[in-house]
Amino acid sequence: MTTGERVLVVDDDPTVSDVVRRYLERAGYEVALARDGRTALADVAVHRPALVILDLMLPGIDGLEVCRRLRAAGEDVPVIMLTALGEEVDRIVGLQVGADDYVTKPFSPRELVLRARSVLRRSAARPAGDPLLVDGDLTVDRARRLAWRDGAELALTVREFDLLAYLMSHPGVALRRGDLLAAVWGWTFGDQSTVTVHVRRLREKVESRPDAPSRILTVWGVGYRYEPRSHG
Q: Is 0.90 surpassed by the pTM of this model?
């Protein structure tokens, strides 16, 4: 049984690519392979895959630059970054340039398939009830997975969109980073700096002054709280 969803795997190691391809195909996905960043960018522009699994270390254009160029071009395709074990700085930078998730090498192919399913499920999710969240100049349409500020559409990744929608759905509530990790990423454990990086990126897009946020507030020792403009 196939899902009909196309996944682009970008890795210059043919052994890794072949293993990932076989596990993804067994899970029902259509898989395309790219060995370098330039080929990956061309593939996304033409075929618009449902998901990109992107190795950090690539010849020529590396994975970080590929992700940066995708986001700069307005491509909102979900990206899972493959990073070396223990390279926390690389993982954080990957999230900062717009990756939705990351898996560290060496990794379990089964875990990667589960992460892929999670990202794709959230990308396609349609909420029950009123899909619109409105707060002053900020509007989030959960049904169409679009967001606007001052009438201009925001370029949000899958995780950024889910995080913003979750925060706006719980106004005035102090939410722990661990709870956000579980609700938005579906992780019962993991590096909570992932949440911190995504909040920082969101603030750059929804706050008038990201260095002095008025919407997404830090609750020291706990996590974050969304404060609607109408309450200020």
A: no
